[in-house]
Design a protein that fits this description.
Layout lengths: L1 H14 L3 E6 L9 H8 L5 E2 L2 E2 L1 E5 L3 H12 L3 H12 L7 E3 L2 H10 L3 E6 L7 E6 L1
Parallel strand pairs: 4-5, 4-6
Antiparallel strand pairs: 1-6, 1-7, 2-3
Amino acid sequence: MKAAVMAACLVSILSASEYTVVVSKKSSFSALTVSQIRDVFLQKRRNIGDEKAIPVNVLGHEEVRSLFEAKVLGMDRNRLNAYWVKQHFQGVTPPLTQPSFESVKAFVENVDGAIGYLPAYMVDGKVRGVHEF
């Protein structure tokens, strides 16, 4: 019986998404589409409805950031870098960055409109998941 429960837990953990796009629990966003998230992180959209949106990336976790860029933004690093070079000349800057997942979470909790991504296990009552990847 114990083995069956452990196996069921392992299967649910393995099939669950590893990362979650998050906003503050105070945010009015309940769910966001991939298109909305992509537009926010590419600085094509500054608001969602009446609420401002401030994207934040994590530094130092290249595999996670690459996964986010591929699954959510639909770009590899080279294409994204070329995009930001072009945007630079139009006066558009890339999203803010934070040095760790803990600082991304704190930023999202405390800055109105902030949107970031975290490992799914870090999502708690202080932030709300709006998209899993």
